[in-house]
Request: fold
Amino acid sequence: MTFKEKLQMEHPELIDEEGYCEDCPEDYGYEVNSVCIERADGCRVCWDRVIPGTEDKEMTKAELKDGMICELRNGSLYIWLNGMPRSFSGHLTGIGMDLKNEDGYKEFDIINVYKTDGKALNKMLDRENLTLIWERKEPKEMTLEDIERELGYPVRIVSAEGQEA
Reply:
């Protein structure tokens, strides 16, 4: 989680239209154990840094709290309530500790978790009221040609010992 993401979660009223804070709110504890970067472009560089200890952490079922919004791989949104994802038309069972479907149905894996600002139940699942707090990080499948295209130059795959793989 970045400092900006934490600020968006905890103090959305401090965020401008571009998703940044106008002032460094050290009063809110965002610079604990790190040093603010004083630059001409302001806090943008500072706030995009990852908070130490939050790097690509996998969320578990035990960390889900009532009121969090869960997005499934199939795009459906559910509210976490009383230990399971629920929607207006039903509920979802078989979610494992890793937030994946225990029966192997990938479309029912939880891939994103949000905080909602919706006040009424029918507004809690509206995407404009959601703030992302966790996202499943999955490896991107690429061919050698895809990698070369992304990098803009040819590559040769070698092992850690420097030998061609």
About this structure: The helical segments are 3-10, 44-47, 121-124, 144-151. The beta strands are 69-72, 77-81, 84-86, 110-116, 130-135.
